[in-house]
Protein backbone atom coordinates (compact mmCIF):
# COMPACT_ATOMS: atom_id res chain seq x y z
CA UNK A 1 0.00 0.00 0.00
CA UNK A 2 1.37 3.40 -0.99
CA UNK A 3 1.31 6.52 1.16
CA UNK A 4 -1.09 8.25 -1.22
CA UNK A 5 -3.66 5.50 -0.63
CA UNK A 6 -4.29 7.01 2.80
CA UNK A 7 -5.20 10.40 1.35
CA UNK A 8 -7.89 11.74 -0.90
CA UNK A 9 -6.93 13.22 -4.25
CA UNK A 10 -7.30 16.73 -2.82
CA UNK A 11 -4.90 15.86 0.01
CA UNK A 12 -2.25 14.27 -2.20
CA UNK A 13 -0.93 17.66 -3.27
CA UNK A 14 -0.53 18.62 0.39
CA UNK A 15 1.57 15.63 1.51
CA UNK A 16 4.70 16.98 3.15
CA UNK A 17 7.36 14.26 3.30
CA UNK A 18 9.69 16.46 5.35
CA UNK A 19 7.08 16.90 8.08
CA UNK A 20 6.46 13.15 8.12
CA UNK A 21 10.18 12.42 8.44
CA UNK A 22 10.75 14.97 11.21
CA UNK A 23 7.73 13.71 13.16
CA UNK A 24 8.67 10.03 12.94
CA UNK A 25 12.37 10.67 13.57
CA UNK A 26 11.58 12.88 16.57
CA UNK A 27 9.41 10.15 18.09
CA UNK A 28 12.14 7.57 17.45
CA UNK A 29 14.90 9.74 18.95
CA UNK A 30 12.82 10.45 22.06
CA UNK A 31 12.14 6.73 22.44
CA UNK A 32 15.83 5.83 22.17
CA UNK A 33 16.75 8.51 24.71
CA UNK A 34 14.23 7.06 27.11
CA UNK A 35 15.17 3.38 26.87
CA UNK A 36 18.83 3.11 25.81
CA UNK A 37 20.27 4.60 29.04
CA UNK A 38 18.51 1.83 30.96
CA UNK A 39 20.46 -0.87 29.11
CA UNK A 40 23.40 -2.17 31.11
CA UNK A 41 26.72 -2.01 29.27
CA UNK A 42 30.35 -2.65 30.07
CA UNK A 43 31.33 0.75 28.71
CA UNK A 44 32.82 2.99 31.40
CA UNK A 45 33.88 6.60 30.92
CA UNK A 46 35.32 7.05 34.39
CA UNK A 47 36.40 5.08 37.42
CA UNK A 48 33.68 7.01 39.23
CA UNK A 49 30.62 4.84 38.56
CA UNK A 50 28.12 7.65 39.10
CA UNK A 51 29.95 10.00 36.73
CA UNK A 52 30.37 7.17 34.21
CA UNK A 53 26.62 6.46 34.19
CA UNK A 54 25.82 10.16 33.77
CA UNK A 55 28.35 10.42 30.93
CA UNK A 56 26.73 7.45 29.16
CA UNK A 57 23.33 9.14 29.54
CA UNK A 58 24.62 12.42 28.10
CA UNK A 59 26.38 10.77 25.15
CA UNK A 60 23.20 8.91 24.24
CA UNK A 61 21.18 12.12 24.44
CA UNK A 62 23.72 13.99 22.32
CA UNK A 63 23.61 11.18 19.76
CA UNK A 64 19.85 11.28 19.29
CA UNK A 65 19.23 14.97 20.04
CA UNK A 66 22.05 16.27 17.86
CA UNK A 67 24.05 13.77 15.77
CA UNK A 68 21.13 11.88 14.20
CA UNK A 69 19.05 15.00 13.34
CA UNK A 70 22.17 16.80 12.07
CA UNK A 71 22.99 13.91 9.75
CA UNK A 72 19.44 13.88 8.42
CA UNK A 73 19.58 17.63 7.81
CA UNK A 74 22.88 17.41 5.94
CA UNK A 75 22.50 14.10 4.09
CA UNK A 76 18.75 13.71 3.52
CA UNK A 77 17.41 17.28 3.50
CA UNK A 78 20.71 18.63 2.08
CA UNK A 79 20.33 21.79 4.14
CA UNK A 80 22.61 23.84 6.38
CA UNK A 81 22.70 23.42 10.15
CA UNK A 82 22.68 27.22 10.35
CA UNK A 83 19.13 27.10 8.98
CA UNK A 84 18.19 25.12 12.07
CA UNK A 85 19.44 27.60 14.64
CA UNK A 86 23.20 26.97 14.72
CA UNK A 87 24.19 30.53 13.92
CA UNK A 88 25.48 33.59 15.77
CA UNK A 89 24.00 35.97 13.21
CA UNK A 90 20.83 37.36 14.75
CA UNK A 91 21.39 35.45 17.98
CA UNK A 92 21.33 38.62 20.07
CA UNK A 93 18.07 39.85 18.61
CA UNK A 94 15.74 40.61 21.53
CA UNK A 95 18.53 39.60 23.93
CA UNK A 96 16.84 41.56 26.72
CA UNK A 97 14.01 39.02 26.71
CA UNK A 98 16.51 36.30 27.61
CA UNK A 99 17.81 38.48 30.45
CA UNK A 100 14.26 39.00 31.69
CA UNK A 101 13.71 35.23 31.66
CA UNK A 102 16.90 34.73 33.66
CA UNK A 103 15.85 37.44 36.10
CA UNK A 104 12.48 35.76 36.61
CA UNK A 105 14.09 32.37 37.18
CA UNK A 106 16.51 33.48 39.92
CA UNK A 107 13.90 33.99 42.68
CA UNK A 108 11.92 30.95 41.51
CA UNK A 109 14.97 28.70 41.73
CA UNK A 110 15.76 30.08 45.18
CA UNK A 111 12.21 29.45 46.37
CA UNK A 112 11.87 25.91 45.04
CA UNK A 113 15.40 24.93 46.06
CA UNK A 114 14.10 24.87 49.63
CA UNK A 115 11.72 21.99 48.85
CA UNK A 116 12.54 18.34 49.50
CA UNK A 117 11.52 17.32 45.97
CA UNK A 118 13.97 19.78 44.45
CA UNK A 119 16.85 18.74 46.70
CA UNK A 120 16.15 15.07 46.01
CA UNK A 121 16.47 15.65 42.26
CA UNK A 122 19.36 18.10 42.03
CA UNK A 123 22.19 18.07 41.33
CA UNK A 124 22.21 14.97 39.15
CA UNK A 125 25.78 14.34 40.26
CA UNK A 126 25.57 13.70 44.00
CA UNK A 127 28.70 14.71 45.88
CA UNK A 128 29.95 12.16 48.39
CA UNK A 129 30.55 13.28 51.95
CA UNK A 130 33.63 15.49 51.98
CA UNK A 131 34.00 15.44 48.18
CA UNK A 132 35.08 18.74 46.63
CA UNK A 133 33.52 20.28 43.54
CA UNK A 134 36.70 19.77 41.54
CA UNK A 135 37.08 17.72 39.44
CA UNK A 136 34.04 15.45 39.17
CA UNK A 137 31.30 18.01 39.73
CA UNK A 138 32.72 20.36 37.10
CA UNK A 139 33.24 17.48 34.69
CA UNK A 140 29.56 16.76 35.15
CA UNK A 141 28.63 20.39 34.50
CA UNK A 142 30.60 20.28 31.24
CA UNK A 143 28.63 17.19 30.22
CA UNK A 144 25.47 18.95 31.37
CA UNK A 145 26.22 21.82 28.98
CA UNK A 146 26.56 19.38 26.06
CA UNK A 147 23.19 17.91 27.02
CA UNK A 148 21.55 21.36 26.99
CA UNK A 149 23.16 22.22 23.65
CA UNK A 150 21.86 19.02 22.06
CA UNK A 151 18.43 19.38 23.65
CA UNK A 152 18.01 22.94 22.38
CA UNK A 153 19.10 21.90 18.91
CA UNK A 154 16.58 19.07 18.83
CA UNK A 155 13.54 20.94 20.13
CA UNK A 156 14.12 24.61 19.27
CA UNK A 157 16.19 23.88 16.16
CA UNK A 158 15.32 20.62 14.41
CA UNK A 159 11.62 20.55 15.31
CA UNK A 160 10.78 24.26 15.23
CA UNK A 161 12.78 25.29 12.17
CA UNK A 162 12.13 22.00 10.44
CA UNK A 163 8.36 22.43 10.70
CA UNK A 164 7.97 26.19 10.40
CA UNK A 165 7.52 26.06 6.63
CA UNK A 166 4.30 24.12 7.22
CA UNK A 167 3.01 25.30 10.59
CA UNK A 168 4.63 28.71 11.04
CA UNK A 169 4.58 29.83 14.68
CA UNK A 170 2.42 26.80 15.51
CA UNK A 171 5.56 24.66 15.12
CA UNK A 172 6.49 26.01 18.57
CA UNK A 173 3.33 24.51 20.07
CA UNK A 174 3.93 21.18 18.33
CA UNK A 175 7.43 21.09 19.83
CA UNK A 176 6.27 22.12 23.31
CA UNK A 177 4.16 18.98 23.81
CA UNK A 178 7.03 16.44 23.75
CA UNK A 179 9.32 18.97 25.46
CA UNK A 180 6.92 19.11 28.40
CA UNK A 181 6.62 15.32 28.48
CA UNK A 182 10.38 14.71 28.88
CA UNK A 183 10.05 16.54 32.21
CA UNK A 184 7.58 13.98 33.57
CA UNK A 185 9.05 12.59 36.79
CA UNK A 186 10.59 15.90 37.78
CA UNK A 187 8.98 18.21 40.38
CA UNK A 188 5.55 19.48 39.26
CA UNK A 189 6.52 23.20 39.23
CA UNK A 190 9.46 22.46 36.94
CA UNK A 191 7.28 20.47 34.53
CA UNK A 192 4.72 23.28 34.35
CA UNK A 193 7.51 25.82 33.90
CA UNK A 194 8.80 23.71 31.00
CA UNK A 195 5.61 24.51 29.08
CA UNK A 196 6.19 28.24 29.46
CA UNK A 197 9.92 27.94 28.75
CA UNK A 198 9.29 25.75 25.71
CA UNK A 199 6.94 28.30 24.18
CA UNK A 200 9.08 31.34 24.98
CA UNK A 201 12.38 29.80 23.84
CA UNK A 202 10.67 28.40 20.76
CA UNK A 203 9.26 31.77 19.73
CA UNK A 204 12.60 33.49 20.37
CA UNK A 205 14.38 30.85 18.28
CA UNK A 206 11.87 31.38 15.51
CA UNK A 207 12.32 35.17 15.60
CA UNK A 208 16.12 35.21 15.88
CA UNK A 209 16.69 32.04 13.80
CA UNK A 210 19.25 31.03 16.43
CA UNK A 211 19.20 28.65 19.39
CA UNK A 212 22.51 29.80 20.90
CA UNK A 213 21.25 32.26 23.51
CA UNK A 214 18.63 29.69 24.41
CA UNK A 215 21.44 27.23 25.07
CA UNK A 216 23.21 29.77 27.28
CA UNK A 217 20.17 30.64 29.37
CA UNK A 218 19.07 27.01 29.69
CA UNK A 219 22.49 25.95 30.94
CA UNK A 220 22.69 28.99 33.23
CA UNK A 221 19.41 28.01 34.88
CA UNK A 222 20.55 24.37 35.14
CA UNK A 223 23.82 25.37 36.78
CA UNK A 224 21.97 27.74 39.08
CA UNK A 225 19.61 24.94 40.13
CA UNK A 226 22.52 22.62 40.92
CA UNK A 227 24.35 25.26 42.94
CA UNK A 228 21.17 26.25 44.79
CA UNK A 229 20.53 22.61 45.73
CA UNK A 230 24.10 22.21 47.02
CA UNK A 231 23.79 25.44 49.00
CA UNK A 232 20.54 24.33 50.60
CA UNK A 233 22.19 21.04 51.55
CA UNK A 234 25.06 22.93 53.16
CA UNK A 235 27.62 21.59 50.68
CA UNK A 236 28.87 24.99 49.48
Topology:
Elements: H1 9-12, H2 17-35, H3 49-76, H4 95-112, H5 116-121, H6 136-167, H7 170-181, H8 188-208, H9 212-232
Helix pairs in contact: 2-3, 2-6, 3-6, 4-9, 6-7, 6-8, 6-9, 7-8
What does this structure look like?
By secondary structure, the chain is mostly helical. It has one domain. Helix content is 68%, strand content 0%. It has 9 helices and no strands. The chain has helices at residues 9-12, 17-35, 49-76, 95-112, 116-121, 136-167, 170-181, 188-208, 212-232. α6 (136-167) packs antiparallel against α7 and α6 crosses α8. The model has no long low-confidence stretch (mean pLDDT 93).
Instruction: State the end-to-end distance.
Output: 62 Å
Low-confidence stretches: none
Largest sheet: none
- How much of the sequence is in beta strands? under 5%
Overall number of structural domains: 1
Tally of alpha and pi helices: 9
Structural class: mainly alpha
- Pattern of helices and strands: HHHHHHHHH
Measured as a percent range, the helix fraction is 55-70%
Characterize the overall form: globular
- The overall strand count is 0
Overall pLDDT level: 93
